[in-house]
Amino acid sequence: MLKEIGSVFSFLTIFPSSNATLETIAKYMFVFPIVGIVIGLIIGSIGLGLSFFLDPLLVSLLVVASIAIVTGIHHADGLADFADGLMVKDTKEKKLQAMKDLSTGSAGIVSIVLYLLGLIITISLTSGFELFRAILISEILAKFSMVLMASLGNSASPGSNSPFVAIMKDKKKLAAAFFIMIIPVILLGETTGFVMLGVTVTLTLFILVLSTRSFGGITGDVLGATNELTRLASLMVFVSI
Questions:
Q1: DSSP class per residue in the chain
Q2: Core-most of 64, 73, 169, 228, by most CB within 10 Å?
Q3: Using an 8 Å Cβ cutoff, are 136 and 40 in contact?
């Protein structure tokens, strides 16, 4: 089991592990929240340590840079492609084609800039152990949102998303991911954690409906965009309550 968790951890970060197939990683997608815990502990510890010495805005900038380095930015790339696809005023096929285009369009660039600004501003509004809690909870919820999306959505086109969408139709795996996620979120977040979870689920469902109407289903880019947007949304909730 540890080997499989290591493979999933490697898939979601830049840290190398075994060369597991996409099907194997999809089979263990329900442990995404565990990887969220590990990533949250790493990034949260960096933020906590830096907050003793630096101004909150500088801490926030370095925390966002740490997220980009640890996760390899590939989910942020999904957010850019998702935005490019949504902005196409044409058929679902043309929208999917725009998402697959290797070049990033103006909508993708604007979405990434706004997303990074949102992260930096939001994270700068908290510090110390509260910053650690915010990052840890939001990272767990972001990873759970991808599990939820794959479980509820249908594939828009064959691709890297296909094994995840197919395997996560097993509701026992969704239930396992939920229990892995809910324990730390409630223990760390208490009432705020419940609100963050509610916003995460609501936003995930909204993206699912939007993607189904726009693309005919979900793709790997939609999963990545969901991870990024739910992370930002849950952080915003944390600093606002």
A1: -HHHHHHHHHHHSS-------HHHHHHTGGGHHHHHHHHHHHHHHHHHHHTTTS-HHHHHHHHHHHHHHHHTTHHHHHHHHHHHHHT--S-HHHHHHHHH-SS--HHHHHHHHHHHHHHHHHHTT--HHHHHHHHHHHHHHHHHHHHHHHHH--BSSSSTHHHHHHHTT-HHHHHHHHHHHHHHHHHHHHHHHHHHHHHHHHHHHHHHHHHHHHHSSB-HHHHHHHHHHHHHHHHHHHHH-
A2: 228
A3: yes
Alpha-carbon gap, residue 77 to 239, rounded angstroms: 26
pLDDT on residue 101: 81
Side chain identity at residue 75, one-letter code: H
| Tokens of residue 224, six digits | 């990545």
Confidence of residue 75 (pLDDT cuts 50, 70, 90): confident
Percentage of residues of the chain with pLDDT beyond 90: 75
pTM above 0.90, yes or no: yes
- Per-residue pLDDT band for 18 (boundaries 50, 70, 90) equals low
Distance CA(3)–CA(20), nearest Å, equals 9
